[in-house]
User: What shape does this take?
Amino acid sequence: MSTILVTGGTGLTGSNICQMLIARGDKVRALVRPTADMAALDAMGVDLVTGDITVADDVLRAADGCEAAIHSAALLGASQQDPVEFEAVNTSGTTHVLDAAVAVGMRRVVALSTSTFFDASSDLPLEDAPVKAAQSGDPYNTTKLAAFEEAHARAAAGQDIVTCHPGAIFGPAPVVSRALAPTSFNRVLRGSLRGKLTRYLHFPVSWVLATDVAWGSVSALDNGVSGERYLLDGRPEDVISIAQACNMLCELAGVEYRVEDVAPSDDPELAAMFGPTLMAIASAPKAPGAMSSQRAKRGPSRTNTRLGYDPTPLDEGLAQLLAWLRAEGQVS
Assistant: This one.
C-alpha cells in the first residue's frame, strides 16, 4: 500500500484526488493549513499534517515516508493579486515539493499547472507546444509559468516529474467550502442560478469536471512518462464561454435567468471586476480554449492515449453540479 502526499488537499481538485486515492486503497497524507476545513478529509481517513506549502520544513515533514506526490496547491487568478503571495505559493511552493521529493526519495511528482502560457497558435499539440514569447505578466500566469519551467528543468536533469494542465474546473467535491471559494468556477455557475451574475467576459473555455482532473492526475501518477505534460481539458465540442455555460446550467435547472457575454475592452470597470488573469486570457489573440478545436482536428492526443483520459460531456457534468448544489442546500 503506497502513501501519496497530496498538497491542496482541501481544494476542489485536491479533495477529489484524496477521495479517489483512498477509494482504490492508497494511504493519503495531506498538507493542510491549521485554519483549513479538513473535516471531510479526516472522515475519509486522510493523514492530516498541518503546515503551509510556503514553508519548506513543513513540506518536508509532510513528505517523510511518502512514495509519491500529487501537487495541486495553488493560488488562483483573483481580481486582486499580490505578486509576493503568488510567488510564495505557486513558485516557491512547487520548489518545496520538488525538493522534498528528492530528500525522501519519492518515485514521482505530479504537478498540476495551467495552459494559459502555452502558444495555442502553434501547429503542435498543446502537450508539445512552446511557451508564448509574450506573456501577460499577471502574477498568476507569471508564477505558474516559473513553476512549470522549474519542474521541467528538473525532469530534464533526471527527476521523475510530470505536469498536468487542466481546463476550467467545476463540479462536486468533498470539501464544500473550498469547492465554492471566490475564485472557483463553481461559484460563478452558482451565481447564475441565484440570479446574481449579470455578465461575464467572453472567451472560449474548455470546461472539465473536477473528478476528471483528479482521475487524470492519478493516471499520470501511474502511467505518465517523466518530463511529459498532459492536458486535462474537456471535450472539443464543449468549448463555450462562461456565460454560455451559466445559461446552459440555468436551462437545465429550469431557471429563466440568463447571463450576458461581454467582449473584453480597456474599460477599467471590467478590469476591476475580473482581474488581470481573466482580462489577459480574454484579450489574447487566440485564447486557450481554442486548443480544444485544434485537438478535434488531430484526433486522440497523448493525454488520451497515454493516460486513457476521456472527459465527461459538459451537459452531464453540469447535471452533476446541479444535483450537488441542491443536495448541499446551495440552490433551491
User: Anything to note?
Assistant: Residues 287-292 have pLDDT under 50 and may be disordered. The two ends are 42 Å apart (CA to CA). The first helix runs from residue 12 to 23. Residues 54 and 93 are 5 Å apart (CA to CA).
